[in-house]
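Obj: model holo form, ligand = S-adenosylmethionine.
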Amino acid sequence: MTTDEWLTDTRTSYDTVAVSYAAQVRDALARGPYVRAALALFADSVRAAGGGPVADIGCGPGHVTAHLHTLGVDAFGVDLSPGMIEVARRDHPGLRFEVGSMTDLDLPAASVGGLLAWQSLIHIPDDEVPAVLGHFHRVLRPGGPLHLLFHVGDTPRWKTEGYGGHPMKVQVHRRRPAQVADWLRDSGFEVEAQMVLSPQEKSSQAILFARRG
Ligand SMILES: C[S@@+](CC[C@H](N)C(=O)[O-])C[C@H]1O[C@@H](n2cnc3c(N)ncnc32)[C@H](O)[C@@H]1O
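Output (holo structure tokens):
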């Protein structure tokens, strides 16, 4: 499969589910004390590193971007799916959301004080991850924090439907935190901590807390 094909499939899939995805995650942060704590840590790290605009890459319907705003962070969202961006703008008027891909991140060098990619790097194949992390490194200011949230596992899985039975065609790349930490270090990041959510479950997720060196 060519890069264009999997990106197109991912974009179309999230366009299809944008409205139902937004409805399903609307209360997710209210129900998730650990993810709220991680976002509070992220906000503190951004301030400690000097503040500035913060990019939420693969922002989906923008609920995390909006939550960061309530924590005093000047966050904006970028997403591959125009449908998701439309929903994000509808639900959070006044915040900035743009269509874009992390595989070709259209932001100036050293222009953001922090970068968050929650459940979005999961759609990037292994051989493309170093290039994406290279973009993250380029656009982050030195010392700026990077937070990644991803599904834990050893094998990718095809997701062919979701969020109310809508058709999807995306690969979900489940990874071990040690593998992602190695990629981060190879790309010039310092890895400071990791949090594993629901470690006993099949749907376990991890958050890596890193910083541009
Ligand atoms: C599972 S959703 C996560 C949304 C949100 N970050 C959250 O935590 O709920 C994955 C999102 O990543 C976006 N995405 C996938 N590939 C992307 C890419 N190459 N660049 C930017 N966004 C991408 C999708 O369009 C989708 O909105």
